[in-house]
Design goal:
Helix content: 10-25%
CATH architecture of one domain: Sandwich
Low-confidence stretches: 1-36
Strand content: 15-25%
Largest sheet: 8 strands, antiparallel
CATH class of one domain: Mainly Beta
Oligomer: single chain
Number of helices: 18
CATH topology of one domain: Immunoglobulin-like
Strand order of the largest sheet: 27-21-23-22-29-30-28-31
Mean pLDDT: 91
Distance between the termini: 31 Å
């Protein structure tokens, strides 16, 4: 994930300071209004930012307002919405125009109001203010105490600029910290500067395949092949059997044909099949809509990207619902292989749950079709093994996925204080209303972003898109090199607090240019409120715009429903100092990603699959910490930085019943044991008897270990006729 989604348009500062104080003198003379009724408990707004946030006169459009009503509405008739000034009073005082009047309800449910299109923010407006109106006063008595009943729509530009200057100053003063000068060039995939094989293996070592984040480098692969037909794969399998070589598969869907999985699950010491060309671009591998075993399906080649499938279906008024991942370029087979997921607290969102049939070439080279309606009944464990295959059962060639009618989703992004998740409402209660829902949580700031989408019959807005992983980036303030070096400073010297500073910039950047986009008057604008096709508005491209790697890895676990609140409270305390290093643990790249999945019984090895603490039909939470991985640190220095992250992951597994994502949770091999989290959960038996049942199916389809690799040993894969090499 790109850590550069922040921007500090200093050209705003002069204009902004004029607006900030234009109404302050009038505000001082305002007389208090009566307080006849309670005030709204909370107000959140959605808005549209300018195309370029550095414009001297930025234009913001107010999109909508959400009101959590007063606890006691007995004497309240409605709410009035106003612009607020710097002193949190109505902008214009007695002459303030009413932006909206929203009737109170008697249900206590949140009130939602959408403003007309192109509703421009008034000059001098700092807040959106909601006042409650006494129903016995004929509308003459308002209560506007300016406590929780308002939200700021502008940005603290002076504070942002000060934070940016502090980061630059720290970088200048810490050039001698380990790895800082190496990081000036490391990651551009050219061995230059002061780089060596030891301090920058990404640029200077020899490897045949890398993960998208370049933390997994596969050095032992003998041969990489990009197959384009079933027959070619069968010929490769036959040759591998003759020559006693092992075979693995990967999607090649990442930047520079890298793997979408960031663990050694994709590595081996033989042949690797990169499936980036095994898709609908080949004449014999096209997509089709069919009825199969009484179910309407799309029949696709295994190497097709999930987003391409979504686009193809949308043109035919069909869709896959909420199974689309946050990263939209994952392949169909890759998503099945690691039980990859979208985010929904109440809808199926794991692709394994929508598979109807699978075509697979096994270790003998035979091509067979397995299906939900046949294999699922005659050999249910085999079917449940195939739907999250981990790459150990064979080469998937085609998949049939259950489809439904195409839908649009309205997504809103709002900004919150983290206490809202740990007070009157639990995490699940807060997100339960959303068909698509997730958080980006910054414990070091005590804040989070809430992304909530709801299926709608409204038409999609022009250009509506999700750009969470492809953000607006302004290099006028910090270059790509500066940014990476600042992150290196924070890893080499956590007390420098540069990671805290970068977390602040990330959150501030999302307020300046929210993570959704749409087209207004022919121009792309950033927005926190958009209606779009479900597959586009819930998923984003991960595109490298800076010609260098960001050295990021993801710690990610799934926690069962009964432990969600306790686990989140533990993570909160952990990040705020209750850890082995007794320090704050900021997450500067994208915050802690909190997502949700419905637990299903369709797969033995899906890490949100039913069994052993995960109850079918309940909701699991994914707690993901994308973090920066430094270069050129000693083992002791690296441990000082990384130990707290390993501590929280270990605790979530041992105390909260969590399971680790199969395609994440590994960092660069020069820093030691990469697979400890998988051996831990293997030894603890977090999958109950599912692993033994899965191994039985592996033994049927690959008894001699053609698809074996070192990662398989770590997670507990066993074979009847194959023993792992001792060096593994």
């Amino acid at each position: 994930m790109n850590p550069l989604n922040w921007k500090t348009p200093l050209k705003w500062l002069l204009a902004g300071s004029t607006m900030l104080f234009s109404h302050s003198l009038l505000a001082m003379s305002q007389t208090p209004t009566p307080a006849p009724v309670d005030v709204a408990e909370k107000v959140r707004i959605t808005y549209t930012a300018d195309t370029n946030p550095a414009n001297i006169a930025p234009v913001r459009l107010l999109e909508g307002v959400e009101i959590w009503p007063a606890e006691n509405q007995t004497n309240l008739s409605h709410y009035r919405v106003y612009w607020g000034d710097v002193a949190k009073n109505k902008l214009g005082l007695g002459l303030a125009p009413v932006l909206a009047e929203i009737p109170a309800n008697n249900t206590g449910e949140k009130l939602v109001y959408e403003f007309p299109a192109n509703f421009k923010m008034e000059v001098g407006a700092i807040y959106v203010l909601v006042c409650s109106v006494n129903k016995d006063s004929n509308g003459s008595e308002e209560h506007c105490p300016a406590e929780n009943n308002l939200e700021k729509v502008t940005d603290p530009l002076l504070t942002i600029a000060g934070n940016l200057n502090d980061l630059k100053s720290t970088l200048r003063s810490e050039q001698n910290l380990p790895g800082v000068q190496v990081m000036a060039t490391c990651g551009d995939l050219v061995c230059n500067g002061i780089e060596t094989v030891n301090n920058c293996p990404v640029d200077c070592s020899d490897y045949k395949l890398a993960s998208f984040n370049y933390q997994t480098l596969c050095h032992d692969i003998e041969e990489v092949i990009h197959p384009t037909s079933v027959e070619q794969i069968q010929q490769i399998i036959a040759r591998a059997n003759r020559e006693k070589k092992r075979v693995k598969m990967t999607s090649g869907r990442g930047y520079n044909t890298t793997s979408g999985s960031a663990t050694t699950i994709v590595c081996n010491d033989g042949i690797v099949l990169v499936m980036d060309q095994f898709n609908q671009q080949q004449q014999a591998l096209g997509m089709s809509l069919e009825t199969f075993e009484g179910t309407e399906v799309v029949n696709v080649a295994a190497g097709a990207s999930l987003h391409e499938v979504g686009e193809w279906l949308f043109e035919r008024d069909k869709g896959l619902g909420y199974v689309h991942l946050g990263w939209r370029d994952v392949s169909v087979a890759g998503a099945l292989g690691t039980s990859a997921h979208g985010s929904s607290p109440k809808n199926p969102n794991v692709l394994s749950q929508q598979v109807v049939s699978i075509d697979l070439i096994d270790a003998s080279g035979a091509l067979n079709t397995y299906s939900r309606g046949t294999t699922g009944k005659t050999d249910p464990d085999l079917w449940k093994s195939l739907t999250t295959h981990l790459g150990y059962l064979g080469v998937l060639t085609r998949v049939r996925l259950e489809v439904s009618d195409a839908t649009n989703t309205q997504v809103k992004v709002t900004f919150h204080e983290e206490d809202e998740l740990f007070g009157k409402k639990t995490v699940l209660e807060d997100i339960q209303e959303c068909d698509y829902g997730q958080y980006n949580w910054f414990p070091s700031l005590n804040q989070y972003l809430r992304t909530c989408g709801k299926t709608t019959t409204a038409a999609a807005e022009p250009g509506a898109n999700n750009e969470l992983l492809f953000p607006y980036v302004d290099f006028d303030q910090l270059s790509a090199s500066d940014t990476m070096q600042i992150l290196q400073v924070g890893a080499a010297k956590p007390s420098s607090r540069t990671h805290e500073g970068m977390a602040y910039m990330r959150r501030a950047g999302w307020h300046l240019t929210p993570l959704l986009t749409k087209t207004i008057d022919g121009k792309k604008r950033y927005t926190s409120n958009a209606v779009g096709p479900t597959h586009r508005i819930t998923s984003s491209h991960l595109i490298n715009t800076i010609d260098r790697e960001t050295f990021q890895m993801d710690w990610e676990l799934a926690v069962p429903e009964q432990n969600i609140q306790a686990a989140m409270e533990y993570v909160r305390e952990f990040n705020n100092g209750l850890n082995v290093k007794n320090r704050e643990i900021p997450v500067p790249l994208i915050g802690i990603f909190v997502r949700f999945s419905k637990v299903g019984d369709q797969a033995l090895m899906a890490y949100t699959g039913a069994g052993n603490g995960f109850e079918n039909g309940t909701t699991a939470v994914h707690i993901e910490m994308p973090i920066f991985v430094p270069v050129d640190l000693s083992a002791e220095q690296f441990a000082e930085y990384m130990d707290p992250y390993e501590e929280v992951m270990r605790k979530l597994i041992t105390d909260f019943g969590a399971r680790a994502h199969w395609g994440k949770n590994m960092y660069a091999e020069q820093y030691g044991n990469q697979d400890w989290i998988f051996t831990l959960q293997r030894d603890l038996g977090v999958y109950g008897d599912h692993l033994a049942r899965f191994n039985k199916q592996v033994g049927k389809l690959d008894p001699n270990g053609l698809f074996a690799n070192k990662f398989g040993k770590a997670i507990g894969i066993e074979y009847p006729n194959f023993e792992y090499p001792q060096e593994w």
